[in-house]
């Protein structure tokens, strides 16, 4: 798969910004990810992300770190933080921006260490791909936690994207197991990624799947547009 994110992040870092990443999904028309947004400061981050960074403690694994903005903030605060991303270009940008600990890997291939805090921001739970994979994904995250560790993640309930009928129900296509399953591909400078699955999870569904793998799931804060921040921890 073309490293769309990595190529775009490197372009922006080196001052070659001429266009944004285009996103195409099974749910909506073409959208864009503005590259400057991926290099935002703490003050420019949404409230959910700011709250997650304020709650971080101990040794931190930033999953899907991208350009490393969250990791950089924590490193500057004195945290021991590792930025993890499967994108070679993203990890190169993290290094260029001064991050001391990075790992180029998918989260499912990352093992052997445990952390006090796992961060999955910008809907990092989407890496699970499908609802049927969510419990296995959560079990793997659980294996990366120290006994009193925590998972901080945000997601969105995208039911609002579907048509509502007069009775308050929603018209959801029958070709998926769960309405939060979306297929994407990315485009940048006429190069396209392969299609990939991404998962948006409403809070109650997340909580149900957490219970099945013996994780507590706490709603920390709700955002302004069907989004939320959750804290997961091992049940004692």
From TrEMBL:
Keywords associated with the record: Methyltransferase, Transferase
Pfam family, one: Methyltransf_23
Domain of life: Bacteria
Keyword Methyltransferase: yes
Gene3D superfamilies: Vaccinia Virus protein VP39 (3.40.50.150)
GO MF assignments: methyltransferase activity
UniProt KW ATP-binding keyword: no
InterPro entries to which the protein is assigned, alphabetical: SAM-dependent_MTases_sf (IPR029063)
GO biological process: methylation
Name of protein: Methyltransferase domain-containing protein
């Amino acid at each position: 798969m073309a490293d769309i994110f990595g190529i775009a992040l490197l372009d922006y870092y080196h001052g070659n910004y001429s266009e944004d990443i285009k996103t195409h999904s099974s749910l909506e028309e073409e959208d864009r990810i503005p590259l400057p947004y991926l290099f935002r400061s703490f003050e420019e981050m949404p409230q959910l992300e700011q709250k997650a960074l304020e709650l971080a403690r101990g040794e931190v694994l930033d999953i899907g770190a991208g350009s490393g903005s969250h990791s950089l903030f924590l490193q500057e605060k004195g945290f021991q933080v590792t930025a993890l991303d499967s994108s070679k270009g993203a990890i190169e940008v993290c290094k260029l921006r001064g991050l001391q600990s990075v790992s180029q890997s998918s989260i499912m291939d990352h093992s052997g260490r445990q952390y006090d805090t796992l961060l999955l921001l910008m809907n990092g739970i989407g890496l699970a791909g499908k609802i049927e994979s969510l419990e296995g994904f959560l079990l793997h995250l659980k294996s990366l936690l120290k006994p009193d560790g925590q998972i901080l993640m945000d997601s969105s309930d995208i039911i609002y994207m579907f048509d509502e009928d007069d009775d308050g129900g929603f018209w959801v296509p029958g070709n998926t197991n769960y309405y939060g399953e979306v297929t994407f591909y990315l485009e940048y400078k006429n190069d396209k990624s392969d299609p990939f699955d991404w998962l948006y999870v409403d809070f109650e569904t997340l909580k149900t799947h957490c219970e099945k793998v013996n994780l507590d799931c706490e709603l920390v804060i709700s955002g302004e547009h069907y989004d939320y921040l959750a804290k997961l921890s091992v049940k004692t």
